[in-house]
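Form 7-S
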Amino acid sequence: MINEKVKDFLTRNDLGDRLTEHEETIDTVEHAAIQLGCTEPEIAKTLSFLVDEKPMVVVMAGDGRVNSSKFKAQFHTKPHMVPRDEVEDLIGFQPGGVCPFAVNENIPIWLDISMKRFEYVHPAGGNEFTSVKITPTELEKISGAEGWCDICKGWEEKN
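Output:
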């Protein structure tokens, strides 16, 4: 069940050994955390948006929720998710497996600062049965991210 496109991408970037195949689905943050044995915030969810009618993705911590005001300040429009039935055509992966690796060409990838508090995060690996263990710095380097953004609420660490 491994997505060969993602496996090849990770192998070319010396991270092929970080791809893990699971017997149960990791299609939600909750399911992924159970399968990986980590906390829900450490799951790196990859969400697909339309900005100026063009697709883009944002990777954020599992406990983050999109803050409309922050999103609009960053991208100059309200957040509009890619319709579920268009995700695979536009991004290159089915919902539940969208990841920041080997996406379709010309898809900007942004990383939310909510992930910077973790040593490792776990994005999907191209389908709902694979994940990748990666540091936020490694993710930034190999994803070709446009940069870091701050569009989430709900994740702030409590003092």
